[in-house]
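Q: For a teaching session next week I want to show students how multiple molecules come together into a single three-dimensional assembly. I've collected the sequence lines for a complex. Could you give me the predicted structure tokens for the whole thing so I can convert them for display?
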Amino acid sequence: MQATTLKPPRERRWSRQNSNPVLGVAMILPAAVALALFQFLPLITAALNSLQSFSPFDQSSTGWVGFDNYLELLADPAFRSALFNTFLYIVLMLGLTIPLALVLAVLIDKRLPGSTWARNAIIGALAASEAVTALIWNQMYEPSSGLFNAILNAMQLPGQPFLTGSGQALISIVVMSVWKDVGLPMLIFLAGLQAIPRELPEAAELDGATERQIFWTITLPLLRPSVIVALFMTTITATRIFTPILIMTQGGPQGSTTNLALYSYLLGFEFQSPGAASASVVCMLLVLALITAAQGLILRDKGAN
Amino acid sequence: MTSMAIPEAATETRTLRFGFLLRHGPTIFLLLAIGFIFVFPIAWAALSSFKSTSDIITGTFPLSWSSFLPTRPTVENYIYLFTELNFQRNLLNTLIAACGQVGIAVVASSLAGYAFARLRFPGNGVVFALLLLTAFVPIEAIIVPLYRIMQWLGLVSTYPALFLPFACNPFGIFLMRQAFRDIPLEMEEAAKIDGAGPFRVFLTIALPNVKPTLATLVLIQFIWAWNAYLWPLVVMQDPNKQIAQVAIANLKSIPNYPMDGPLFAAATAVTIPLVILSIVLQRYYVRGLVTSGMK
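A: Of course. Below is the structure for the complete assembly, covering every listed component.
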């Protein structure tokens, strides 16, 4: 009874006097206009442009061509490779970031000496800019005079091409991105862990459960909402990886690090091909939508069981 | 009584501390190592900024102390950066863009956030859902048509072009809406009974009550604007108005003229203050990041 008086039901957030349509519309107007102009209009333009052809001289539309741009893309091996790489980035980023973020969050949540140091360091990496991070790692990855090969050399291991090897460039970019971006899912897990009442794992410990059992049977199921959010945000991060690629490899060697974001950018700005660039952007958004929808579906099914 | 208890407690603490270290030693070591890994690249760049360019190129490989530490420390990179390269100009441009973005974000997000939280008007729910939808559209996807819109508005290579498109973002609106919803309705109603109109209530009651969230909004927008790279790269073609991030990246690609020293110096000058800011104000920073995902 007391709880209901303390916490008013949802409907109460609009009090009767607040029915003021003119003021309401006026207050959302600046944000709504800006988002319409700078987010929805480009999005709609991209979708419409993907169905048109353009004059190579003045970039004006020369008419509707249906799905010709998409067919043209599918016939382009560079597009298929960019599409594949987009999935590769997403799979690698999720596979490395989410477990690592979970381990880091559990370690930091122990609140031992060193927890604050580790958390601060991770937050620092997260706040640094993508461009500067890419430039610094680019120096460390430098094959002939870089730090990583100096370390490998000192350990009597063979030097690696890193960003200049078509088999290693993509994973090198992923490793850098994991270092940079693991902080966000880690902070989400940390908030999730701190929301778990301490009594639960403590009671299990009294009953003789090992630390590992507690993690798998109590902590992880309770973290499910955090896992969903972290997966979702990391998927967006992984789909849109762009600045590090542009700075470190420009998509090379031999297109091995080009994803759809970079491919669309190059088509649009370097090759002045708005139709195909727009179609490629729509494909990128479809990939993002498909993967997030699949994640939602899979995780929901698990919850129902 | 108390004088008896103190030495006893001290030995007890000592044995406790020893047992604690024995039990948690490996984890503590692991935490220290994790922190080191995340600090290392930025710290390495900061240390390298005190090496001459030739020391950076020849001193890193093979591995020795000079791979990590400036054995012949010099501030020549910083002098070169702020005299020859006029890097303060780029820093000022970054600051202008960041202040523009923060200013617009605070005003637009507070207004819209309050309207969505408290005012009833037709289409409230639909418009809010539509605005949130844009959170899923990465800038990389809309950059080409957005550039055309800026051309059409005649804003290419102007300061507003740097911050206008991303100052209003769903994150800020969402953050402010959550904050306004958490204010007890009774507070606002009391002001209304005293005869204040809804906009006055917003200014005098609601806004002062969401100061911590405003701090979060300011900090996160500032960090985002400070770190922006791709959009300024595309929309700003006037080198005098170019922001610091793009100017630093340009140092990498000067053919046959290595700029590694100035590059590290510029990266340090831009990154270290921001990293320290985010750590000192992490209460606000982390809450903003986590809120954007959680609710």
